[in-house]
Amino acid sequence: MSSTFKDKLKNSLMPNGWLHAAPNSSALNPHEQWIVALGSFTWSYLGDYVNAFESEDDASTCAAALEQWWGVSDTDSYRQRAQGLISQGQRSEFQPLVDLISDFRSVASNISGIRKLKVGFFPTSIVSYYYKQSNTSFKASMKDLGMGSQELTEMLMMCSGYGEGDDFGEFLEDFAQVKSALAWDAVRVVHMSSLAYSAGYVSRGEAMQYSSQLKSQVEETYTDWRNAAAGYVLGAWLWDRTDTRLDNISRTTSMLLKDPESLVNQVAFK
């Protein structure tokens, strides 16, 4: 854990001792509460406020983060970048992977009896078993996804429950019900908009307006906050399949869902 993250966690901690709450946050109307609840998926991981739209960091720090993470340096570049996430983002790019993982999890979670015992001894056999049940082939998946044999096998093993999937925490069981990585894009719009407002590039109203653009799609795509959280975690992993990062994102998102004081437990999803 970085020293910056540690410093952010020292004060104003929520009851679970980790999630960071603003001690004097601005009053939020019901719509804003929903937006902040969505943004809290990533703010819990970054150690920023999970109950406020504005960042804990000062304007110069937020501006530096926008430049480093997004290539955003002013109002116009923010608007362009935000609109890109809203209209396209990475959800279309990730969709074939999301479909594969969702289908794979449906098969993997229903293995029982002798087959389950065999997979326990020979974990990678779950991949060949899946493709025997599937309408496609391993080679076809390699071609469609642009992956080599080892990369595809390792990715599926991470999602199998028999490999190193512990880094997904409790979300592994949810992936069968995840139909899109839209939440990943939607959360990033909120995060970037919060930084743009905190950096002084746009008004709070404009930042909220951009943050709201995907709200109806998120509500249509997911059943509840947990399903949206699983979509976010899966999208975050597909963007950067780093074990330590995945473990931290899964852990902090899970803590957010379990904390009765968090907005995801205070605000109706739809």
Characterization of this structure:
The protein is mainly alpha-helical and 270 residues long. It folds into two domains: 3-90 and 181-265, no CATH class; 92-177. 61% of the residues lie in helices and 0% in strands. The protein has helices spanning 3-8, 30-46, 59-70, 75-87, 91-108, 113-121, 125-133, 138-145, 149-158, 182-199, 204-211, 215-221, 225-239, 243-258. The protein is elongated.
How would you classify the helix and strand content by structural class?
A: mainly alpha
The proportion of strand residues reads under 5%
Relative helix content: 55-70%
Shape: elongated
- Most strands sheet: none
- SSE topology string: HHHHHHHHHHHHHH
What does this entry show, briefly?
With 270 residues, the protein is mostly helical. The chain has two domains: 3-90 and 181-265, no CATH class; 92-177.
List the helices and strands and how they pair.
Layout: H1 3-8, H2 30-46, H3 59-70, H4 75-87, H5 91-108, H6 113-121, H7 125-133, H8 138-145, H9 149-158, H10 182-199, H11 204-211, H12 215-221, H13 225-239, H14 243-258
Helix pairs in contact: 2-10, 2-14, 3-10, 4-10, 10-11, 10-13, 13-14
Key features of this structure:
single chain; 270 residues; mainly alpha; 2 domains; 14 helices; 61% helix; 0% strand; disordered N terminus
